[in-house]
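Issue: copy button drops trailing tokens. Both records pasted manually instead:
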Amino acid sequence: MSESKGSDNESCSGFELLDFETALEQFQELVEKTVTQKTKERLGLYIKDDDEIDYDEFYRTTLTLFGPDVKEHNVKVFFKKICNNPDASTEWCEIFGYFIGGNGAMPSRPQGESTVFLTSEKQQITYPVVKHRDMLTSMVKVPHLDFTVTSSQKGVLAILNNKMKVLATTIVKDAAWINGCDYLTQLKCVVAVTERTVVVWDYKSIQKQSSYVIIKPMENSLLCVCTVTMSDQLAEDTILIGDDKGYVYLLKVTSDHLGMKQCKDKKQSQAQILDSKDFNIVKRKLHDDWVLKVKYISDLNCFGSCSSDSIRSFVLDDIKRLEDNLPVKEFSVPKGVNAFTYCGKAKVIVTGGKYEAYIFLKESHFYQDIVLL
């Protein structure tokens, strides 16, 4: 059986995935047919025919619908579950290895506590320059360089490799509170935002404490930051920033702007201060409360921003809307949206809020309310 499953995996490697919504509907139909068959088998009413669904057929159909991200052992556990108890409650996420409880049953928990996915292992990471009672505010994966950028509340920026070992760190002095970070793909630096400043860190500097540039002052408290990835930019990065007044900023930084000077004393870091007035900073008020996350979605050629604002909770539109006054595509969610992400394979945007989470289709319409806490 293992050989046949291996050939199935190879044949599906180049398979173009179906629309995720359609795949879910077809998978639900498959589960219903299987449950009906197993129920009839238990009652002695089932007569075998050409439409019989055995494990091989169930696995092959599931693999066709969702592609190689589905692992055989997870599908086998799911199939065995509905065979042993056709009345058992199931969730489609179980075939990807995520379970609402150890045995597929909802665990008991105190009222008001949320259910989370369980992980099988964890690893503790020690920062050599970490401050007392500090905590991480942001972790950003940089896939093409295979490392992760992190920032902490008390000013620690770090680069970690794919084995989560610290490669470089620096402490941003006089940083009241670092709220977020990202990687500048063209300038090959790290960008971070504090309450009133933008920090650009040259982690490749030969100095013991790497050089960084501070852009200040900023008008409001900066809460989140992201890089706009555009292939036609050379020696220039575009940055999106959200603040505590509902504004989203568009800031362009070039190598000429930074021009980081080498320090005479290479044991010390060179903190260069730049006046924010020397930069062409565009901003537009998109929300009536804190901007909790901004993200540029290159597959959709647009940006998204979310807020705890219940009226303009989530904005998804072209980046040009930040430079004009044309209407933007905005959505209202009770108690606002705290976070969101985009899945290119499924072509959906998932948002999470205080009480609800939503899935958006690529056409930017609500698909369904997926959880109520």
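Record 2 (pasted manually too):
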Amino acid sequence: MPIPRKLFDTIKQVIPPLDGSLHKGQSGRVGVLGGALDYTGAPFFAAITALRFGADLSHVICSPTAAGAIKSYSPDLIVHPILREDSTPDKVQPELKSLLSRLHVLVVGPGLGREPYMQSFAKLALSLARSQGMFLVLDADALFLIGRDISLIEGYRRAVVTPNVVEFKRLSEAVGIDPNTPASERAGAISRALGGVTVLQKGAKDIISIDTTGADADLEASQLKGIDAEKEKTKETVEVDVEGGLKRCGGQGDILSGTVGTFMAWGKCYEDGAFGDHSIPASKMPLLAAVAGSMVTRTASRRAFYKEGRGVVTQDMLSEIGKSFAEVFGEETQGQDKGKL
């Protein structure tokens, strides 16, 4: 099923122009919170994907045990090893709050792990991000965290959750979704139960759904910014069946987090007036980001698989992200004049 033309055209309006009119940072400053002793690849994949997708700056907020490895993977990433096991949320809060104030979006979960100290720092980050009205993407062990305490994200409509099959089942159970609910309606039911959080259900086809009609979807002060809450109520589901690769690599979900996160950062730049005509409401950005990220990630998976076949690994997808972006949204969005090459 093709993406509706109106939705596709709206997505393209949020892509920053590559015409020399923007300054460094106005095409997105992305943060990824995750990375502990055993998990260094996931935050790297999410953060480097942000740059390959088109973000200007990409930060990784991690533990010191992960920082050296992540730095060695790429000098393009800005690494902050502030999540120390021997520290506390109270001690980390001032530095983390300052760092988040410089970002447009925070991706929480890739390489987070389930160690109590990392989970407590993630909880702190979610609280700070909400208080600052940041856009959020939650994946991997951040979903484990909110599954245990949905109040951390409940009602926050500037967020996207990206569960895989197992995570989706756990989240469904955590919010009390009737197991007899039709499969095509479950993502929307979870969104409604979470108070309007956008759900990107990963699978053979990705299902993106938002339902803000429930009682738990009241906007809090950090989300209002003068909008009419009643007019913002929406219920929408989009299926993305763009062809992907035939092998599901570990780490592909981290690439998806990076693409979705970058588009949400662009949404924040658009909201702040860096570019665009301000005709698209900020409440639309999570859905647009989820659809755009899904389309590009699936295309990159297909392109990498066609080249490498059974031996494809997540790293093979990185060089395909820019080309996939051009394939999905058009060469003109890449700002390239082939006559000058």
